[in-house]
Amino acid sequence: MTTVQDPWHSVTDFPALAAAMEQFLRGQIPVTPMHGGPLDPESAPLVPHLVALARHGLVPLLSQPGVLTPTLQQRACVDMVVEHADTGLGVVRALAHTDLVVLVAAPGTLLHQDLPMTWSGGDCITWAGRVGLDRQLWADALPSEAADLVARLCFVQVLDPVWGRPHHLWDRLHEAVASLRLRRVA
What we know:
By secondary structure, the protein is α+β, with helices and mostly antiparallel strands. The protein has one domain (8-180). It has helices at residues 14-25, 47-55, 85-95, 135-139, 144-151, 168-180, and strands spanning 59-64, 67-68, 72-74, 77-82, 101-105, 111-120, 123-131, 154-159. The strands form two sheets. Strands 1-4-8-5 form a four-stranded antiparallel beta sheet. A four-stranded antiparallel beta sheet has the order 2-3-6-7, with no helix packed on it. Helix 1 runs antiparallel to helix 2 and helix 3 (85-95) crosses helix 6. The two termini are 28 Å apart.
């Protein structure tokens, strides 16, 4: 079992979840229930984008930048939770005119599409398209009230279908969030 420090243990509502994730992204707490260590160095340039998402009710759980080198090919993506299905559907509508892929799962729904996202040394090492939240993963690290909260959230995954674009997803997602005029939650 992962030992997760406060503020994770004091999460009782969605704004507290968003605030805890923002603290993790800023390096103020060392781990999340989904990620058992500090933020990966490759994600450092994404922090301003991820913090902005969390503040507006799109709490990022996992993310990666687009990278294209001779030894590493990676598509940008971000997994998020939202409190209301309307927010997830708003993201779908706001990104519909782009080439990004958006997958949304209602609470309790798990989808498995297995889209390759990172190739390194000739092997696929990360996948996307596994959409949904596993309550048990959170229940192992958090009090039951917080795990129950997470189980009631909608899951949104945004993927860039093109390998190696470092800014495209983040620019389009920023524009989409701005167009939704979401209220600040954290």
